[in-house]
Amino acid sequence: MAKFEIEALEGMHYLKATLDNETMQAEAGALSSMTGDIAMTVKVPSVGRVLKSYLSEEGYFRPTYTGTGIIFLEASFGGFHVLDVKGETWVLESGSYWASEGTLNLSAYREKMWTSFWGGEGLIDWQTKVSGRGKVVVASAGPLEELTLEKGKPLVANGKYVVARTADVAYSIRRPTKSYLASYAAGEGHCRYYDGPGRVLVCYSPYWRHRMFSQNSGQAAAAM
Q1: Residue 182 and residue 9: Cα distance in Å, rounded?
Q2: Does residue 222 lie within any of the structural domains?
Q3: What 3 state SS string does 99-143 have?
């Protein structure tokens, strides 16, 4: 199995992948450097896949690296989490996929239109579905915590705090109170409900450097 290590330097995080006659995939444009006998190939996606990716934040070109050597992917003010998939299926939020072993199957998953709309993602929200056995690297704004959910005891999140979930977790958008007036008075609006059984990866808070970078980028864009 490929060896994935999350390194930290100067307040930034990056992935170091060690391959021993193995294969991995990564998000397009993520490569920083690589050494050894490694060949990079890019499979041309179908027209349907290109269209799905155009309508979302998911990349449609995901290079494959095969051979023996070391690969470094680009650093981020955010964080990375190595998830060991053991036969189950995970759904990753748009923009959360970073890299994975070649033993895993990657496909596109479309959220229900009504759920996507009320969740603030527009009418179409394509995500990445990962299944099989192997490791996948999940990108996030901060550290991730894995929670196990029981049926009837949902996790309620007022925002995109859940970065990934197993496919058996029921996801929906609801008001946190029974009436519109109470929800308005509470200032919460619609919340995201995740009901088990299943598991979720939650990012409660971003790294402070990521938060500052995002704020400064937003202010610079607004000033243009």
Answers
A1: 46
A2: no
A3: EEECCEEEEEEECCHHHHHHCCCCCCCEEEEEEEEEEEEEEECCC
Task: Please check whether residue 224 lies inside any domain of the structure.
Answer: no
Query: What six digits make up the tokens of 98?
Result: 């970073």
The 10s digit of each residue's pLDDT in 56-94 is: 444 567 899 999 999 999 999 999 999 999 999 999 998
pTM of structure: 0.84
Residue 217 counted as domain residue: no
CA 31/CA 21 separation, integer angstroms: 19
| CATH number of the domain within which 74 lies | 3.60.160.10
Residue 210, judged by CB atoms within 10 A of its CB (0-12, 13-18, 19+), counts as buried
> Any idea which residue has 């705090």 for tokens?
161
Cα(124)–Cα(215) distance, rounded to whole angstroms? Answer: 26
Confidence class for position 178, pLDDT limits 50, 70, 90: low
| Structure token pair of residue 126 | 């394509």
pLDDT, tens digit, for every residue of 111-128?
665 555 445 555 456 789
Full residue range of the structural domain in which residue 104 is found: 3-212
Q: How many CA atoms lie within 13 A of 131 on its CB side?
A: 8
Number of folded domains that form the chain: 1
Question: What pLDDT score was predicted for residue 56?
Answer: 47
